[in-house]
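Limitations

Structures in this collection are predictions, not experimental determinations, and the ligand pose is part of the prediction. Treat each record accordingly. The example that follows, with zinc ion as the small molecule, is included so readers can see exactly what is and is not provided: the inputs are given verbatim, and the output is the predicted complex.
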Amino acid sequence: MLTKDEAIFIRAVDYSETSQIVTFFTRATGKISAIAKGSKRPKSAFDGPIEVFSYGKIVFSVPNKEKLATLTEFEQQLNFSRLADNLFALNCSFFAAELINLLTNEYDPHPGLFDSFLQFLQNASDYRASNIENRESSNEQRATLSLLILFQLALLKEIGLQPVLNACVNCKTRYEIRDTRYETGWPEVYFSSSANGLICRDCQNSFPDKVRLTNTAASCLADLKLLAESDERTLKEIEKILIHHFTELLRRPPKMAKYILKT
Ligand SMILES: [Zn+2]
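Predicted complex:
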């Protein structure tokens, strides 16, 4: 039976001299792996070699659940090759794809996550294009990092692990943001991976895995609209917490994580 879907190409491993095992994140079917016969040939049935993160219409056949699917068609409609001009945006995209690969199961559809990933790729490559003209490379990195943070939070929500970021998970005290300079909030704020959210000073003793957060970072997490205008240091602090959280969830650090906080 042939299945038609929209898909983003995530990764490939060589299978033979001309064929590959390809992994796609599809909108209605979820993650799939398929054999792409002849995909390494210049004139393949898939518009030539498949570009990483390309988006398009896919047709594949699934013989049965035990066997690998076969890729029949992939019409590459959008590619984000501009990402390759910017190592940071490219690494963030590989990191996002790695998280999808590790945290979703094959044939488990997440259309909302698919839309978030496509939007992330589009925005990350658009920032690149607009900033080449303006030569604002640090602003570009800041923008990409805030997109990555939003994507990771969307991913956690989609897989049913949305963290509690507006109150203490334990005693339910609300985290109040009172002004845009973030001068208020709690005397101390923590994030606990095991509790999946914020922990206040009064409760922190019961959570040995907690990590301290600044009020600036906590305010951004409690009100994501603040992310867009926050400084790079705050974004890096939030990203560090998220990487710590994914490391706890996966019981090992994601491979791409070390490339995200390096710069
Ligand atoms: Zn509390």
